[in-house]
Amino acid sequence: MTLEYKKIFQKWALGLAWFYLLLWPLMGITPDGLSFAPSLKVWATVAAGTAFFLFIWILKQQGRLDFFSRPAISLGRSVGKAVGALPNKLLAVAAIAALCLPPLFAGRYVLDVSINVMIYVCLGLGLNIVVGLCGLLDLGYIAFYGVGAYTYALLSINYAVPFWLCLPVAAGMAAIAGCIIGYPTLRMRGDYLAIVTLGFGEIVRLILNNWMELTNGPNGILGINAPGVWWPNWADGFTLEHIWLKKLPYLYYVILGLALFTILAVHRLNYSRIGRAWEAIREDETAAELMGVNTFRLKLLAYAMGAVFGGLAGAFFAARMRFVSPNSFLFIESAMVLSMVVLGGMASIPGIILGTLALIALPEFFRDFEQYRMLAFGGAMTIMMLFRPKGLWPAKRLGQRSEESQ
What we know:
With about 400 residues, this protein is mostly helical. The protein has two domains: about 5-80, no CATH class; about 90-405, no CATH class. It is about 70% helix and about 5% strand. The protein has helices spanning about 5-30, 35-60, 65-85, 90-100, 100-105, 110-135, 140-160, 165-180, 190-210, 210-215, 250-270, 275-285, 285-290, 295-320, 330-345, 350-360, 375-385; strands spanning about 30, 35, 220, 230-235, 240-245, 325. Helix 7 packs across helix 8 (about 165-180). The radius of gyration is 24 Å and the shape is globular. It starts with a helix and ends in a 19-residue tail after the last helix. The model is unreliable at about 400-405 (pLDDT under 50).
């Protein structure tokens, strides 16, 4: 065994020891006393799994897997070229058609998880405008989600305004909230900006929690109307019948439409002049300002545009749950959305979708380890930052400079 591999095994053993020191207090300290068997069982499983992957990695480094990896890589490149030769519109139509199929054969549980995934896709892409494109760290993004949800809830309960008319109102109110929060904070940078946005997010939650006359405080708002549509009825001649979209298949198609609209809008913004200006601000704000970019106005626009998609997702959340309360808009939600952006790849639309699937859909397959979800989540984020610091699917133009391409 070479010195290099000895160091690798030493680090692996040290990591396992540190992992057990973290794991045992969670599983070994119980009301009945101290126990070691449950933590040792989980630790042994993790040790065996990591040892297997370490062994595969060593074989790959030594070139003993080339007989398998080279044909697989060649096949993957051939498939990629064949798919790349197809028109983008054809691929988009095929993807949309595939997304329309789950309600036809999937069960309630699958649809429920799919709806959650698409809600967080909207949130992740909205935050991507602020963090990924403009380079501003926002830890209070969930506040715009709450503003959109409460806007629809109040208009639905008090004035019976339909869901479809409330969507632009919720987006507009969230954008106004984004401007109000962004205006006094955008003169700050770095850690100070993060702390202030975190504070403003908590301020919005406390307002929702304490303004009893408007929001009903911690009790929340109950009885919110679901989305509805007018449908032609030919039973007794032509009439229009109002149908409430309360069932999960109907709600799935509603959030699918919102998610597709968000993806298209963020894609268009990304490749517009405004998107280029946001990227210039992200890469070097001082240079962008010297080149004539109005940095303050465009950063404020980034906050407002990001808040729009958070407001849309919030309005749908209120319509789907038919109940909202301040407990749905805690800081942990902002952290989750930010993690999706970082994990998938900042400024990358496919990456954010992939990050959302990894953090929302994947944990559903590991329900038995739910109480250790945050431990696994932290470990996965650490490993990803070490091996893929730009995300699972990084953006092509992220951080690309002229001197780096030479």
